[in-house]
Amino acid sequence: MSMMSDSQSAAMTGERSREAPSSAATADDPNTVYALGSSTGESARLQRQAEELAPDSAALLDRVGLRAGESAIDLGCGPRGVIDLLAERTAPGGRVVGLDADPAHVAMASEFVASRRLSGVEVMRGDARHTGLESGSFDLVHARTLLVTVPEPAEVLREMVRLTRPGGWVVGLEPDTEVAICYPPHPAFDRLCEIFTTAFRRNGANPHFGRRLAELYREAGLEDVTVEVRATVYPHGHSRRTVRVDLVCSLHPEIIKMGLSDQEELNELDTAARKHLENPDVLVMPSLNFLAWGRKP
Ligand SMILES: C[S@@+](CC[C@H](N)C(=O)[O-])C[C@H]1O[C@@H](n2cnc3c(N)ncnc32)[C@H](O)[C@@H]1O
């Protein structure tokens, strides 16, 4: 029998203290239904993601022309999200809110805001499905790689629309991982993609969500809905080249609990896939990223 407490074993695996998701996960706690769990490795991946996706997110925000003095919120901002991109565009005199359910991410985002000396920015802990914030209080409401990770994305979208002022914008970026290219192919990469898809779906999240984004925007009552897709091939040395492998690492505890694999196989697959991706001649396009924006009537 293990002599380790839950928090000790969590520390060894890089997991932070959080109840393990189960089929009986309480929908009331956003952290139990969120597909990627909480670990130091996942937080580090999200810090990198903020840099990696900044060009796509900047392009998205520029499509709707957020202006100085306006207000914006980033729901599920993680340790950084697009808080800095929103603050740059709304300064001077604007208001930016970063909201996340994970207290560790709230702390990291607050540190980020302080380290960058961003003014007019507030970071808060909350549930993107029901924030409790005033209706119509933002010119722009943003969520990136949040809807893909929750079982009921329409719930979050309803809240996004509620928070937007009439005439304001709901905007987001969500991946769709059905089309992922690694060429030449490698069995370890293929197996990791297969494991990821099954594990990611465990609480009802949809790894192929990107294509549904515009449809959900329209169903939520938004107008002038526009969608754009980006398929980026990441060159040798780019940190996003290994994103599919990194995502599987974030899911190791779940994968093992679900009996999809064991730590030994996962370690072997990880080593083999990373070695393959280190070859500069290997081409990697890890997902399609859907950008969408729609106006609240
Ligand atoms: C995949 S991360 C994306 C982080 C950030 N948006 C980015 O793109 O870099 C999803 C984030 O949403 C948070 N999250 C998940 N469900 C949430 C909910 N219902 N309310 C608030 N935050 C939530 C998670 O804690 C995590 O930080």
Low-pLDDT windows of residues: 1-26
Number of helices: 12
Structural class: alpha/beta
If classified by CATH, what would the architecture of the domain at 6-176 and 206-233 and 288-295 be? 3-Layer(aba) Sandwich
Keywords:
about 300 residues; alpha/beta; Rossmann fold; seven-stranded mixed beta sheet; two-stranded antiparallel sheet; 12 helices; about 40% helix; binds S-adenosylmethionine
Model description:
This protein is α/β, with parallel strands linked by helices. The chain has a domain at 6-176 and 206-233 and 288-295: Vaccinia Virus protein VP39 (Rossmann fold), CATH 3.40.50. The chain contains twelve helices and nine strands. Helix 8 (187-200) crosses helix 10 (243-250) and helix 8 (187-200) crosses helix 12 (263-278). It starts with 5 loop residues before the first helix and ends with a strand. The model is unreliable at 1-26 (pLDDT under 50). The structure holds S-adenosylmethionine. S-adenosylmethionine binds next to helix 3.
List the helices and strands and how they pair.
Layout: H1 6-13, H2 30-33, H3 40-52, H4 54-64, E1 71-75, H5 83-90, E2 95-100, H6 103-115, E3 121-125, E4 138-144, H7 153-163, E5 164-176, E6 181-183, H8 187-200, H9 213-219, E7 223-230, H10 243-250, H11 252-257, H12 263-278, E8 283-285, E9 288-295
Parallel strand pairs: 1-2, 1-4, 2-3, 4-5
Antiparallel strand pairs: 5-9, 6-8, 7-9
Gist of the model:
The chain has twelve helices and nine strands.
